[in-house]
Design brief:
- The protein has about 375 residues and is mainly β.
- Among the domains are: about 100 residues, Roll (Mac-2 Binding Protein), CATH 3.10.250.10; about 100 residues, no CATH class; about 50 residues.
- Helices cover about 10% and strands about 30% of the residues.
- The protein contains 4 helices and 28 strands.
- The strands form 9 sheets. Strands 5, 6, 7, 8, 9, 10 and 11 form a 7-stranded mixed beta sheet that branches. Strands 1, 2, 3, 4 and 14 form a 5-stranded antiparallel beta sheet that branches. The chain has a 4-stranded mixed beta sheet with strand order 16-15-18-17, with no helix packed on it.
- A hairpin with a 6-residue loop joins strand 1 and strand 2.
- It starts with a helix and ends in an 11-residue tail after the last strand.
- It binds 2-acetamido-2-deoxy-beta-D-glucopyranose (6 copies).
- The site of one 2-acetamido-2-deoxy-beta-D-glucopyranose has 4 residues, from loops.
- One 2-acetamido-2-deoxy-beta-D-glucopyranose binds next to loops.
Length: about 375
């Protein structure tokens, strides 16, 4: 879970450093996170050193245009927003300030559905003096969305899930920040705890080169529960010039043909789902992977043969193969069944490519 999130963030950082016309880098002022690609996801804007979510209230198509234009280096055609989102937050976490770890402050912890702008952040002293201790009970802490490593929205990992903390009744403060910073190995002398800022309203006229030329209001007064989920993509009506007729939804671009691994619906072009494939251009169906093959990725032009030791004997969008059970083996790839071990041999493990000869003093007169 943790590794996955970090990887996602690195991917988005990697992709979002697009330079726009006036030299404002998209990845430095805004980004889309938690989406399948850098052109889809929840919109965050960097303001006052913290990455904050943008609220859906008062969001307008002009703002979508400016955002997507930045992310797409002015090559976008059209785009659409938006979607709701809730967090499950922890609250009623109170510290005296001297605790070694946050779990010592969690006696009264409770959970609630919270608004994303209720969440808390900390800023620790700049120097890291020791490496992170984390907690005795396996409760982890991390700071996310901060401009520097020593600050950001607080997330606490409990039972395998990273959760935000809600600032219910203004209970969050410097004492709690002390504990978090201490856990992370930072100096605590200037630790401050605060409510994570939220971009409340972004208003663009549509002509801005960069989102930071739009009006951005900060605060915690979102009048709506919704934040922005943005799709920077084409709409097919804009993809009808001679050279580019199809809107490829997964790339977000107008294309002259609907590539292999995809299928056409109207003039939109979608990725084939996992377990299916399409080898040719401009087709309106994908095919199930044939017997003995599978495909665990979307948008593919062929399927992969089951490895040796595995088989698949069904058609129906298989995304993996079955392993050969004990007593059987498969020495070839792309097979629909396993072979029984011959008499005089055995196999006590699954997913094997050979059987083992019976040891001296033992025998096996039946196969399998
Ligand atoms: C935008 O431009 C940058 C720098 O030229 C490039 O690396 C990036 O891939 C471009 N983005 C898109 C969506 O084409
Ligand atoms: C917040 O304050 C209200 C009103 O004073 C109280 O009823 C509620 O229990 C408090 N919640 C917490 C988590 O302390
Ligand atoms: C908050 O925690 C205290 C104990 O620390 C507990 O007495 C109280 O009931 C809790 N409040 C809520 C709303 O869960
Ligand atoms: C973690 O899960 C265990 C077992 O389900 C539960 O007893 C415990 O209260 C959970 N911890 C927290 C902090 O929710
Ligand atoms: C583009 O398509 C129009 C009809 O839609 C046609 O008249 C024109 O000749 C085409 N141009 C090229 C370069 O193919
Ligand atoms: C797909 O399967 C390959 C092995 O064929 C594996 O390396 C890869 O991690 C899998 N990808 C996903 C997304 O499951």
């Amino acid at each position: 879970m943790k590794t996955q999130t970090i990887t996602m963030q690195m991917i988005f950082f990697g992709f979002l450093f697009f330079v726009t016309r006036k030299g404002v880098v998209a990845g430095e002022v805004m980004r889309l996170i938690n989406g399948p690609n850098p052109l889809q996801g929840e919109l965050q804007v960097l303001k006052d050193g913290i990455w904050s979510y943008a609220c859906y209230s008062n969001w307008a198509i002009e703002s979508t245009r400016v955002t997507c234009r930045m992310l797409r280096n002015n090559t976008y055609r059209e785009s659409y927003a938006a979607r709701t989102g809730y967090l499950v937050c922890m609250y009623n976490i109170t510290c005296s300030g001297n605790e070694k770890s946050i779990d010592e402050c969690m006696n009264g912890v409770a959970y609630k559905r919270c608004l994303f702008y209720e969440t808390v952040a900390v800023r620790c002293g700049e120097d890291k003096i020791v490496s992170s201790t984390q907690s005795l009970l396996g409760i982890g802490v991390r700071l996310v969305n901060g401009y520097n490593q020593n600050e950001g929205k607080v997330e606490v990992g409990v039972n395998g899930t990273w959760r935000s903390i809600a600032n219910t009744n203004n209970s969050w403060g410097n004492k709690e920040a002390n504990v978090i910073c201490r856990m992370l190995g930072y100096r605590t002398n200037n630790a401050i705890g605060f409510q994570a800022p939220t971009v409340t309203q972004i208003r663009c006229t549509g002509n801005e080169d960069s989102i930071d030329h739009c009006s951005i209001g900060m605060g915690n007064s979102c009048s709506s529960f919704l934040y922005i989920y943005l799709y920077c993509s084409c709409v097919s009506a804009n993809c009808n010039d001679n050279s580019s007729r199809y809107c490829d939804v997964s790339l977000g671009t107008c294309e002259s043909e609907c590539a292999p691994g995809r299928y056409l619906s109207g003039s939109y072009c979608y990725s084939c789902s996992a377990g299916t494939y399409q080898p040719a251009i401009n087709q309106n169906v994908c095919y199930y992977c044939p017997f003995g093959t599978y495909q665990n990725l979307t948008g593919q032009s062929s399927c992969k043969a089951c490895p040796a030791g595995e088989y698949i004997n069904m058609i129906g969008g298989q995304t993996s193969c079955n392993v050969c059970p004990p007593g059987t083996y498969q020495d070839q790839t792309g097979q629909t069944s396993c072979k029984e071990c011959d008499a005089g041999t055995y196999q006590n493990m699954a997913e094997q490519t050979v059987c083992i000869a019976c040891e001296p003093g033992t025998y096996q007169n039946s196969s399998g």
